[in-house]
Write a structure and sequence with these properties.
Pfam families: Ald_Xan_dh_C (PF01315), MoCoBD_1 (PF02738), MoCoBD_2 (PF20256). The chain is an alpha+beta fold. The protein is built from 14 helices and 19 strands.
Length: 507
C-alpha cells in the first residue's frame, strides 16, 4: 500500500481487516520491521562545501510516522495470489494529517520542513572550480551572457518493471534475492547493511534485467520486504511492480534548474563559465544521488572548449517527490545541455554565427592529452573536425533553402547542433574517487580438465550481451575455440567483486 499524499503525518495504521482477508499470509507496517530492517542509505561520502555533514535522509523500507511523497510505502501485504494481496491492501486503514509540500526545488520554504535536520530543505551545497579566477574574468569581460534552464524530471519506465523473489533458508539463515538488477553486488551490499548481516549470507541473482536506464542499479524497499517476508513465513515471496507503481517508486532522473553565465572577450573567445544548478533530490537521499551533479557532471561542464576558468555551485534540495538518482548519462547530459544552450544564447545575443563561435573556441585535432578548465584530462580528439564534418553531413549550407520551402507550406523548420563531451568510467570513477580510491573490476577464469574455460564476471549485461565480446577476447588471447568458453554473470555468490555495470566504456 502506498501513500496517496505527497506529505503527511501518519496518525494511525489499522491492518486488522487486511490481515484477516482471504488468502492473506502477513501484513507488514513500518513499526513491524523497524527493529529488523534499517533504512536504505546513500553510499557516497560527499560533504557540504563548508565541511559540514550533509543531511542523510535515508529511505525507509516502510514509512513509520510520516510519508514524504506520493507512492511512499506504508504497508506490505503478502497473500496467496496477487489479486488477494491487492484486495487486502485496500482494507488497510491509514489516518493521515496532510502537511504542506514542496513540489520542486524552487518552491517556497515550507512551514514544516521535509526533514527536521534540514529546516530549509537543503541537503548539501558543493563548490567546484576556481571562483576567484572566474570573478576576475567576468569583471574584465567585454560580454557576459546569462541563461536559466530546466532539465525536467524524467521517469525511466522500462517495459520490464522491477520484480523480486525473496527466499530464506532456515537451515543456514541465508537469504537469496532474485531480482532484475543492474548489479548484484551493489544491491547485495546495500541490503546487507540494512539487515545488519554478513554479505556472504545474502545472495543476489539476476537472471535477466530487461530495460534499466539506471533505475535498476539500486536496492529498493521491495527487495528488503520480500526477503523479510520470506524469513517470517519460511516460504518464497514474489513481488512485481505494476505500471503505476513504477511511476511512484522507481528512482527518477534529472530535475535540475540551472543558472549559468559565460564571459567572452571582444572577439568572442570564451573566458570563464559559471554554473549554479539547484538539484531536486526528491524526498530521500538515494544511494548514488550526490554524484550526479557533482563528481560525474562537473568534470565535463566546460566540454572541450578553451575556457580559462570554471566555477560550479551546486545546491541540492529535498522535495516531496520520488527520489532522484543516476539516469542515462547521470549528470553529463545536464552539463552538456546547459553549456551548449548557453553558447547558442551567446551567439544569438552577440550576433555570432553559432558554428563559428564554437569553432573559435574549440581546439584543433589533438593527438596528446589536454586538460580542460575543470581539470578533466582529455586524451585527445578531433573536436573541430568533428563539428565541421557534422555540419557538412547535415547540409547546413542548404538549410536556408529548406527553411524557405517549409515556410511556403506554412511549416516551421529549425536547425540545432551541439558538441557533447563524455567521460569514461562514469559512476565507477566518481564513486571511487569520492572514497579516495581507484575503481577496480574483477573476473575469475577457471579451466576444466576437458579444455573448457569458465569466466565469471561481476559486471551485469542489460541488453548489451557482454558474453559475446568476452568470449571472443578470451579466445583470441588464449587461442581457444569460443564455443568452449562460457561466461557467467549476475550471481553475487560466484563473482568475488562487482561494480555498477553497463556504464560509459563498459557497455
Amino acid at each position: 500500500m502506498r501513500s496517496p499524499l505527497p506529505h503527511a503525518r501518519i496518525r494511525r495504521i489499522d491492518s486488522s481487516r487486511a490481515a484477516s482477508a482471504p488468502g492473506v499470509l502477513t501484513v507488514l507496517t513500518g513499526h513491524d520491521i523497524a527493529a529488523t530492517i534499517r533504512p536504505l542509505g546513500c553510499v557516497i561520502g560527499l560533504r557540504s562545501d563548508d565541511g559540514t555533514p550533509r543531511v542523510d535522509a535515508d529511505r525507509a523500507v516502510l514509512a513509520v510516522d510520516r510519508v514524504r511523497h506520493v507512492g511512499d510505502g506504508v504497508a506490505f501485504v503478502v497473500a496467496e495470489t496477487a489479486n488477494q494481496a491487492a484486495t487486502a491492501a485496500a482494507l488497510v486503514d491509514v489516518g493521515y494529517e496532510p502537511l504542506p509540500y514542496r513540489s520542486d526545488a524552487d518552491s517556497p520554504e515550507l512551514e514544516v520542513p521535509i526533514w527536521a535536520d534540514a529546516p530549509d530543505d537543503v541537503c548539501f551545497t558543493w563548490r567546484f572550480g576556481d571562483a576567484p579566477a572566474c570573478r576576475a574574468l567576468f569583471a574584465s569581460a567585454h560580454h557576459v551572457v546569462r541563461i536559466t534552464l530546466a532539465s525536467p524530471r524524467l521517469v525511466p519506465y522500462p517495459i520490464e518493471p522491477r520484480a523480486a523473489v525473496g527466499i530464506y533458508d532456515e537451515q543456514t539463515d541465508a537469504m537469496t534475492l532474485l531480482a532484475n538488477t543492474q548489479g548484484v553486488h551493489f544491491v547485495r551490499n546495500v541490503l546487507a547493511r540494512a539487515f545488519d548481516r554478513d554479505p556472504r549470507r545474502l545472495r543476489v541473482l539476476t537472471p535477466a534485467v530487461g530495460g534499466g536506464f539506471g533505475a535498476k542499479i539500486y536496492a529498493y524497499p521491495e527487495h528488503a520486504l520480500v526477503l523479510e517476508s520470506a524469513r517470517r513465513l519460511r516460504r518464497p515471496v514474489r513481488w512485481t511492480a505494476t505500471r503505476s507503481e513504477s511511476f511512484l517508486s522507481d528512482t527518477q532522473g534529472r530535475g535540475h534548474i540551472t543558472d549559468a553565465a559565460i564571459a567572452l572577450d571582444k572577439d568572442g573567445r570564451f573566458l570563464a563559465l559559471s554554473v549554479r544548478p539547484t538539484v531536486d533530490l526528491g524526498a530521500y537521499l538515494s544511494q548514488l544521488a550526490p554524484l550526479t551533479a557533482t563528481g560525474v557532471g562537473a568534470p565535463v561542464q566546460a566540454g572541450a572548449y578553451r575556457f580559462q576558468a570554471v566555477e560550479i555551485n551546486v545546491r541540492a534540495m529535498f522535495t516531496n517527490n520520488v527520489p532522484v538518482d543516476a539516469f542515462r548519462g547521470a549528470g553529463r547530459p545536464e552539463a552538456n545541455y546547459v553549456l551548449e544552450r548557453l553558447i547558442d544564447r551567446a551567439a544569438r545575443e552577440l550576433g555570432f554565427d553559432p558554428a563559428l563561435l564554437r569553432a573559435r573556441n574549440l581546439p584543433a585535432t589533438q593527438t596528446r592529452p589536454l586538460t580542460a578548465a575543470t581539470g578533466l584530462v582529455i586524451d585527445g580528439g578531433r573536436f573541430l573536425d568533428n563539428q565541421i564534418r557534422c555540419l557538412d553531413v547535415a547540409d547546413r549550407a542548404g538549410f536556408e533553402a529548406r527553411r524557405r520551402e517549409s515556410a511556403a507550406r506554412g511549416r516551421l523548420r529549425g536547425f540545432g547542433f551541439a558538441n557533447y563531451l563524455e567521460a569514461n568510467g562514469g559512476l565507477q570513477v566518481a564513486e571511487a574517487m569520492s572514497a579516495g580510491a581507484f575503481p577496480v573490476e574483477c573476473a575469475t577464469l577457471t579451466f576444466s580438465g576437458d579444455g573448457c574455460l569458465d569466466i565469471v564476471v561481476g559486471t551485469q549485461s542489460s541488453g548489451q550481451d557482454h558474453a559475446v565480446p568476452l568470449q571472443r577476447l578470451a579466445a583470441e588471447r588464449l587461442g581457444m575455440d569460443p564455443r568452449h568458453i562460457t561466461v557467467r554473470e549476475g550471481d553475487s555468490s560466484v563473482a568475488p567483486l562487482g561494480r555498477v555495470p553497463a556504464d560509459p566504456s563498459r557497455c
